[in-house]
Write a structure and sequence with these properties.
Layout lengths: L17 H16 L4 H9 L2 H7 L48 E4 L7 H11 L1 E5 L2 H5 L23 H18 L19 E2 L12 H13 L5 E5 L6 H15 L3 E7 L3 H15 L9 H10 L5 E7 L4 H5 E2 L2 E2 L11 E7 L2 H8 L3 E3 L5 H7 L13
Helix pairs in contact: 1-6, 2-6, 7-8, 9-10
Bound molecules: adenosine-5'-diphosphate and magnesium ion.
Length: about 400
């Protein structure tokens, strides 16, 4: 809803998940033959006298619809409104039987209080009712929205139908829950379920690791503290300690960022990469359907927004042909997931690869200097070899 009460469509929400849609279809079909259970459940509520007082049916006489163009006069109720502007409807509502309508709900940032605008939007956007909460919910987890409609979205709003409408929506929800197959919901994300956190690191922490403090700080700062990068490469000669830096950093992320999944894929060969993905799929609980490639399955899983934050180490990314692919053969890099919450750290001996994967976000690992190296090798002082011939 814009400043002058103009309605502007900003987007469509996620669709409700399929198991809920098919349960609703089943319920609809059932209602062709049997009466809805909503009334039965409402009567149950009214057996409790306290609840009956609060959630009772307000009475058909209080269901008043004014002409769209007729604006409310004053006060909370419509005592001063002109009864001659009430729309005479063919069928007065049948005592206390709520109607169930299926269709689109307009979810906006403001209350709809204008009969003319309501009609225009309803017609143009094909919506049944207006509300303000569903947009926030629906995009954060899969659900279906059940609204109890309690007014006509015009200036004659009053709250007298609200408790009854809420009760009818709850009763419909109860009936719907009765037809949902529990196994159909397996795997659906729930409202309170944060993305799970996984660890898949093939090596334990190296208790003898020393030094490289500034390199580890660089990684932490760029990837987490300042978040200036999501792709980094650790580069240096063979045996210089790249894997050890990556491994130590992996374990420190596990310790300090409990919301981040930390995963490891060796890229020294296609087989090693495949094995790494198979292990990740096992840890993540991915079930392979048909002959789906495990690498594709892992990529799909982690690319989904619901997987939360992750950090993948791609170790030994040294062979350009293997990484970028050759004619007719996709490179291993094409199997890495994408996602706004994902970070990848490569280790490589090849500076060109480092730069093409991480541009300037390259952490150089030089040979250990004497001060770092002396403790690494277990000596307190630099080792001096004296060779006599
Ligand atoms: N910072 C370090 N602290 C202790 N040992 C280290 C360190 N860096 C490297 N090493 C030792 O050197 C070996 C080779 O390091 P690695 O990380 O595998 O090299 P790269 O991955 O660069 O080829 C390791 O197995 C480990 O024994
Ligand atoms: Mg290595």
């Amino acid at each position: 809803m814009e400043a002058e009460g103009v309605f502007k469509r900003t987007g469509a929400l996620n669709k409700p998940p399929r198991p809920l849609l098919s349960a609703i279809q089943n319920l609809k079909a059932r209602h062709y033959q049997h009466e809805s259970e909503v009334e039965i459940h409402l009567k149950k509520i009214w057996e409790n006298s306290y609840m009956a007082k609060r959630y009772r049916f307000p009475g058909a006489n209080n269901d008043v619809l004014y002409e769209s163009s007729y604006v409310h006069e004053s006060g909370n109720a419509c005592d001063h409104c002109d009864r001659s502007r009430v729309v005479r409807r063919k069928h007065d509502r049948e005592a206390d039987k709520p109607g169930i309508h299926y269709g689109n709900i307009a979810s906006g940032n403001g209350v709809m209080k204008d009969g003319n605008m309501r009609d225009r939007v309803a017609q143009k956007e094909d919506v049944l009712c207006f509300e303000m909460e569903a947009a926030g919910l629906m995009d954060s987890f899969p659900c279906v929205v059940i609204r109890g409609v309690c007014d006509y979205a015009d200036s004659h709003k009053n709250k007298s139908w609200q408790p009854y409408a809420a009760a009818t929506a709850a009763c419909y929800c109860k009936e719907l829950l009765g037809v949902i197959e529990p196994h159909a919901l397996y795997g659906l994300e729930t409202a309170s379920q944060p993305a799970a956190r996984y660890e898949c690191i093939p090596f334990p922490r190296n208790m003898k690791f020393v030094g490289r403090t500034r390199k580890l700080e660089m990684l932490e700062r760029a990837l987490f503290t300042e978040r200036t990068s999501q792709r980094m490469a650790i580069v240096g000669l063979g045996g210089v300690g790249k894997t050890q830096v990556a491994l130590t950093f992996a374990h420190s992320v596990i310790d300090t960022h409990p919301d981040v999944s930390v995963l490891w894929i060796p890229a020294m060969s296609a087989d090693a990469f495949e094995e790494g993905c198979t292990e990740i799929a096992r840890v993540l609980g991915i079930r392979l359907v048909g002959n789906l490639d495990v690498k594709v399955a892992v990529r799909q899983y982690l690319s989904a927004r619901e997987s939360g934050r992750w950090l993948i180490f791609v170790d030994n990314a040294d062979d350009p042909g293997l990484l970028f692919g050759t004619a007719g053969k996709p490179g291993l890099l094409s199997y890495l997931p994408k996602g706004s919450e994902g970070i990848i750290v490569y280790t490589t001996r090849n500076r060109h690869i480092a730069q093409s994967l991480a541009r300037n976000d390259v952490v150089d690992i030089p040979n250990m200097d004497v001060v770092e190296g002396q403790t690494c090798c277990g000596w307190r002082w630099p080792m001096i070899l004296w060779v006599t011939t």
